[in-house]
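Input/output pair, single chain:
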Amino acid sequence: MSKLTALSLSIAVLGGIWAFLALGPLAGLVLVWAGFIAWGCYFHTGGDTAALQKTIVGMIYGAVIAGVALFLVGLNPLGLPGVSGPAVYIAVTVFLLVIVAGCNLLSTVPANVYGYAATAAYALQTADAGSVTAPDMSNPVLLIALSTVLGAVFGLVSGKVADALSK
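Output:
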């Protein structure tokens, strides 16, 4: 079987399993789409052990930094008027998102951005997304972090299954 066919088959089957788990037994603990973002990030980062590490660490770092941004926007500690507050807090946190690229595990800036964007999007588009300080799975940072870990692991498994099928 060709590598492409093997990878397509592997991702299709495991993607169905991931969707079943995320929409069924793990509903409320993970987000199917966030897991797929991590899965894609794993392959785009190289599809190996280093990619697994960089995907998980980078996306979780991005989620945490988005959590900081969301917290600051809600608190507005500088008392900035209108949209200038969110703009300033986002600018500062996005700087922190990228400046860490000199660190090996955070060197894949797209992974950092995916985690930030997924967290911010979920929190801003979901009325019951909870708080970034909540110690439960209503916390968008925790929800994206767990989805990231499982999605990236599914990426690793799908690559290994594809390798086995193509031999």
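The chain is about 70% helix and 0% strand. The longest helix spans residues 49-75.
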